[in-house]
Amino acid sequence: MYMDGASSKEGCGAGLLLISPTGRAGLCLKGVLYRKSYLQQRLKCVTPEKGSYVLRELHEGVCGNHVGPRVLAKKGMLSRYYWPTIFWDSAELVARCKSCQLHAPIHHAPTQEMIPLHSPWPFFQWGIDLLGPFPRAPRGYDHLVVAIDYFTKWVENVNRTILHGLKTRIESARTGWLDELPTILWVYRTTPRTATQKTPFVLTYGTEAVIPAEIGVPSSRVQYFAVQNNEEEMRLNLDLLECRREEACIRMAKYKRQVARYYNARVRHLSFKLGDLVLRRNSVSRAGGTGKLNPNWKGPYVVKEADRAGYCKLAHLNGDEVPRTWHNSNLRLFR
Ligand SMILES: [Zn+2]
C-alpha cells in the first residue's frame, strides 16, 4: 500500500500505525504515509510518478553518476523515498538510459558457434595472414607474411606464438626482430603442438630434427650414429609417415571438437529483426572518435535487412543508408 499527502486530509495531527500483511510497519503522519526501513528510520511513500522523477535526478541529474539499478534503488531509499516498484523502475531507467547504453561495456562472448574445419592431409589447405607492423628492419622490412598449413595449426595461434617468441627473444638477445625470426621458426617447427602431440617437423619430414642441445650434450641417436643404419631408418620413417599423419589427424579432430564444445558453451545468440534500433561498436565503425572519453557504442541506427548468418544492413534515423554490412557481434539492441 502506498499513498501521498494529496489523497489524505491535511493536518489531522494524529499518527496512525499500519501493519502490512507481511509484518512491515508503516506510519501515517499528517496524512503522509511512511514505511519503516532497515536502511533508514522512515521512508516517505511516494507515487511511482514522483519516484520516477527522484530516480532520474539521482541517475543523471547534477549529483547523478549513471550508477546501476541496485545502487540507484539504494540511493533512492537512502534519500528516504519508497514505493513498491522502486527496484524495477530503477532497472528500467538504467536499461533505457542513452548515455549508459552508449558507454556500455563491450561484450566478449562469441555470437556464433564454431564449426571446426578439418584438413585431410598436410599442405592440402593453407592459411595466410599478415603480421605487423614491426619496427623497420634493415632493407625496409616491417611486416611478416605468415603462411601456415591448416593441418598442423590454425593461423591465429601461429601468429600468437611467433609474436610471443619475438618479444621474449628480443628482450633477452637485444637484437633486431628480423635476426631472431629464423630461430623462432625453428622453435615452432621442433615443438610438439597440443592438438597433434607431434612437432610440425616430424609431420612434414617423418623424422625429428636434431636440435643443437643434442650435439652439445650428445643424445643416444647422436652418440650411436651410423651412416648406413641411419639411411635405412630414415627411409623406414618416410614409409611410416602416413601412419603418423593419420594418428595426428585423429588427435587433431578430437582436440578441435573439444575446443568447439568449450567455445560454443559461451555463445550468446544475438539476432535482430527489421526495424530494431541498434548501436554499433565504435572501435569497429570509428564513427564517434577513438579517444579515452569517447563512447563504446554509437547510434542508434535502424536495422534495414538482417540475414540468418548474423549480418545486418543499417540506416540512420533519417533513412540514409550506413555503408557496409554489420555483424551481430558488433551490434547491441538500443532500448
Ligand atoms: Zn545512465
Automatic annotation (TrEMBL):
It comes from the Eukaryota. Signal peptide: none annotated. Residues 53-104 form the Integrase zinc-binding domain. This is Integrase zinc-binding domain-containing protein. It comes from Coffea arabica.
